Amino acid sequence: MRSVTVIVLLPFVVAAPAGAQETRPVTSPAPQSQPLATQPCPDIAPFFAPPPEFRGQLGAYRSPLRFNDGALVRTPADWQRRRQEILDYWHSVMGPWPALIDHPTIQYLSKEHAGNFTRCKVRVEVAPDDRREAYLLIPDGQGPFPAVLVTWYDPASSAGLGRNPNSTVAFGSDLAGRGFVTLCIGDDIRSRGREPLPNNLQPISYLAYCAANCANLLADLPQVDAARIGVVGHSFGGKWALFASCLCERFACAAWSDPGIVWNEADPNANWWEPWYLGCEPQRVRPKGLVTQENPRTGAYRRLIAEGRDLHELHALMAPRPFLVSGGAQDMPEHWIALNHTIAVNNLLGFKDRVAMTNRQGHNPTTESNQQMYRFFECFLRPPR
Length: 385
Fold this sequence. Notes:
385 residues, alpha/beta, Rossmann fold
């Protein structure tokens, strides 16, 4: 068994000196969790209802409740086979994941107390031969706590250390203040797509793989309730969180802030075709910009479009796990048409109110949209009182 590098922070027992690390295997199982919430809290329940004009509309999207051969999915057992078929297809197009790291390592570099939580600068193993600096935020008090992985360009901003004091992307520090362990990770995504990744993975799938390993790392920490781990991100981070949660069932729920939840080649910011997301192609780097005759689709994105696939198939992999789309300029109310397909999957499985969407003006998160996301996590990840 691999070991995980851990630290026990005050007030849990003792703190390691700055720069030091203690290595030991985490052998004690997490305490038995109470069941996750099966219904949204009353104050966010309206977000789980499509507007009347979009209710029941399915559009031209291919139903995830049809097998590749056209046969209908009729039972929950059928859905498990269909779910695997969708997973297998997307991994075949994007490149297969390497084996997940059961017990990723974490090295503690420094720590400080901030308000009602401790902020640790750490170095985490997100993939074989890929260790990067991140921030781990642990609330004061007695755990285990629910946890949320936060995905963004730079982890410092997520952890409340960004240059802009009025930033609305400090999801990690905001959630830590509300009693969640948060792990804030980052990536220079626009540098991707030029060099091959393991198994020739598309960059967004590689990042989802890294996130899955981070979920395993969080589950190993004694301060974390391993059954209550979510993921959240905005914009690029929302794309990252979308792929991570859909492809990894370790995440019990997810919130995606304005990632562009379906293809939209008319929107330059819904840029799934770029080489740093799904357009990576060996020996070719597609110039940045909209898809045109002079600048055509490349990589996995080209095949997905040619074969009539869209991101609603990935959404369906969340069922019956709940998720919230915090929509802005990229994700407008009409995207309920795609979300209705996941609602249909949940109906088949006997679950209601598992798909939510909020909407705001503009792309950037607002104080209100963030409060809605945080309430979502409080509802679905916190044990009932």
